[in-house]
Amino acid sequence: MNTTPLVQSFVSHFGEMGSRWGINRTVGQIYALLFVSEKPLNADEIAESLSFSRSNVSMGLKELESWRLVKMQHYPGDRREYFSTPDDVWAIFKTLAEERKKREVEPTLTMLRAAMMEKPGSDAERHAQARMSEMYQLIELVTTWFSDIQHMDVETLQRLMRLGSQVQKVLQFTQSLSKLTGRDSERE
Amino acid sequence: MNTTPLVQSFVSHFGEMGSRWGINRTVGQIYALLFVSEKPLNADEIAESLSFSRSNVSMGLKELESWRLVKMQHYPGDRREYFSTPDDVWAIFKTLAEERKKREVEPTLTMLRAAMMEKPGSDAERHAQARMSEMYQLIELVTTWFSDIQHMDVETLQRLMRLGSQVQKVLQFTQSLSKLTGRDSERE
DNA sequence: CTCAATTTTCAGGAATTTCTGAAAGTTTGA
DNA sequence: TCAAACTTTCAGAAATTCCTGAAAATTGAG
To answer: Which of A139, B30, B131, B167 falls between 20 and 30 A from A52, CA-CA?
Structure first.
């Protein structure tokens, strides 16, 4: 497996950024290689391309599978496993967002919920709980909204995003409409 | 500095989650402690509360300052520096999002832009470039939208978020309006 | 300016994470 | 059922990151 300089720099970048993104170098590089590869690759090809040990590749692929970021397939007459990334970048983005939410925010929400159930034993605790509650409400609102948005179809999502902050005007408009009709389009 | 069990568990959680969030245990714990503290703390108080060395606290605070997540202040007649987190959780959220964008996505966008300028030397490179371009466009759209949204005032932002995916209906409605009037509210 | 109070730097030890090779485990065609 | 082809596991080596204490630097009151 010869990687061109272009692919090489893309792969290295993902390796270096890996630590900032909470994955390791190996995993980042494997993902990058698969992402730009024309065809699915097997573990030996990956190991050779990136000069990693076969076992390291195996562990990296397992990690990527746990993130649901790679697809595995077989070719008839070939017992080896071939890996690739989904074609649709929006689908990838959604998967990534879901997994990050699960790993990086859910545990915190759980902890905060538990902390808020405790009876405060002092002024300091009362204050701490109030702060945690603020944090909880913010995270809850943002993540719920995010997953709402994520379930919209890509077309709509793109339209919404391209609209940018102009959505504000639309919002103001519907608000004045709802005042006229007396109905409120917001939840609750 | 005696920390109550409630604060203790909040602080520990931030320490443990630290690695998933791309910060280290120390930094996570210092931030958590400051976040729930009733009043600003100086470095010695933090070091004692968390049983870290004074120098470790100094480094942690420096890191938090580089993220713009802590405020420093002085009290008259006291030369020590006192640290706290901003009160407004929305402001904190915005700062965090900006910094993460700067550290975790900008470098990738730069790399992708550079890669896309290269002349492809083979079919493999042409394919790789096409993939990078898809990635670029997605990240560019999402981050631009995110920073657009971020600049909206908190009131509007909250209203938008509470609306959730119902924004879809509003969008559809304005789209049919723009068809009637022949004007398009989208950019470009 | 002096000096004590405070903060920062940094070399190197401690802890953690990553990576490898060898061995064990699994799968499937014959 | 066997054995070759392939994948996974895992102990420990290698690399990296974190943390500390000592020393240097900075700050500001007197």
So the answer is: B131
Through-space separation of residue A24 CA and nucleotide C13 C1' in angstroms: 25
Residue position matching structure tokens 């930094």:
B27
- The residue whose two tokens read 């600003």 is B40
**Is the CB of residue A53 less than 8 Å from the CB of residue A14?**
no
Residue B14's closest CA among A127, A1, A97, A128? A128
Q: Which of B145, B147, B154, B172 best probes binding to A when mutated, by most A CB atoms within 10 angstroms?
A: B145
What token pair was written down for A177?
Answer: 């409409």
**What are the pLDDT digits (tens) for A67-126?**
999 999 999 999 999 999 999 999 999 999 999 999 999 999 999 999 999 999 999 999
The b-or-e profile of A28-40 (16+ CB within 10 A means b, else e) is: bbbbbbbbbbeeb
Report which residue type is found at A102.
Answer: K
Contact B104, A21 (CB under 8 A): yes
The predicted-structure confidence for B6-32, as pLDDT tens digits, reads as follows 999 999 999 999 988 989 999 999 999
Determine how many CB atoms are found less than 10 A away from the CB of residue B125.
18
Q: Which of residues 26-45 of A touch B (CB under 8 A)?
A: 35-36, 38
